[in-house]
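Following up on my earlier thread - several people asked me to post the actual chain instead of describing it. Fair enough. Here it is, all 472 residues.
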Amino acid sequence: MSDTAWRSDPGTGAGRLSGRSLFGRARGMTSRTVLVTLLVATVSVFATAAVGVPLIRQAATEHARESLRKQADLAATMLAARTGRPARVQELARLMRSNGIRISLVRAHTADRGWVPQDAMRKLRNGKPVHSRVTRNGTDVLFEARPVGKANGVVLAQRVSEARGETVGPRLALALAVGASAGTLAGVFLARRLSRPLRQAARTADRIRHGDRGCRMPLDPPEEVRELSSALNELSTALEVSEQRQKDFLMSVSHELRTPLTTIRGYAEALADGVLSTDADTAQDAGRTVLTEAKRLDRLVTDLLALARLQADDFAVEREEVDLTALAAAAVTAWRPSLEGSGTELRTELPGDSVLVHTDPVRLRQVLDILMENASRVAPHAPLVVALAAEADAGGGLVLLSVRDGGPGLTDEDLRVAFERGRLHRRYRDRRPVGTGLGLALAAQLVDRLGGTIIATHAPEGGAHFTVRLRR
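Reply from S.P.:
Thanks for posting it. Predicted structure:
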């Protein structure tokens, strides 16, 4: 059996959720959420580094340059004051070298170190300070020089990399590691939080699949989870109602089948055992009884097949221009002998001219026959009215084809469930004449396939009033 989120159960005709599929999706969502959050954290760190590293390096370079300037000013001040020279100057030089700063003293316009740039020497001879950045052998070096007196001076040099400290790389690696770790932890937490409703939904679906129709999910936030929980709860309720209706329907049909079959079987056994008299009158009575019960069976099977075909894709509706006045009159003519023979007062309220509608005449006549047969059964000695009327509206007009009777009628609750299979049959089978319990349901589905609507109300004659509405 394949793992699908929704599959049709051939035993019940109801849909069934697969818990294994939902569990698989929950696991997939957990891993995907972790990967996505980890990827987002990694991208965020690299994006921050791409923007922040140049800014950090620039700020560090400016800070190093400012520090070197201050130290050059300090060295020039000490040399000019001749304070503690040369011991203090040597101590200052050792301190600067420990920080990566090289120092050169200029005496009589001559530097004691060979690395001092000529440009710096020219500016010092002119009595100007030096602030420069020079690239030597691929290395950036900061130079600061200060004149001391007319012929002397001091020159400081420091590599840019040493000045700002090459800590960006390790810091970036640390930030990446911290971001990735935080993203992973957040992803695991988020994934577990997001997949929890799916896991709960999977467990609920599995319980529904095993027949527990009373299980429900709590309607907790967020909205998407609430919608999922509501959908599963509605599914469970719908399956419960559907299965109960199927049970009731099967019980009703089995009851209807058993009654005529018992009668036919009884007469057949009596004939086979020679219990029945062989005279003509007795044989005719037995034959009429068997024929009546066989017709009941045939009507029940026909209704069942018609209902089954209505659910299939091959149910044909052949539309044409139909004169409803003529169709209703033909139905009345066909039913009049049997209705008047049973004492029913058959009346018509048909217009004098044609009422044309684009519909299927065979299916519509089938609906009218169902309604007339239903009325004649519940009201054999009461009035039965077939009426046809047209109404104008913004959509081009409606045609109302109705059947009214003067029988015992229906309650308000009956009117709401009149077109549900077997509802009226189960309610009234021990109190009044009933049919198969399928006729009104079949009529409602036929009208729906014809694009119309059918409603049940109270009739002025005291019984039931069924109206088919079709658009012209």
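Residues 1-26 have pLDDT under 50 and may be disordered. That should answer part of your original question.
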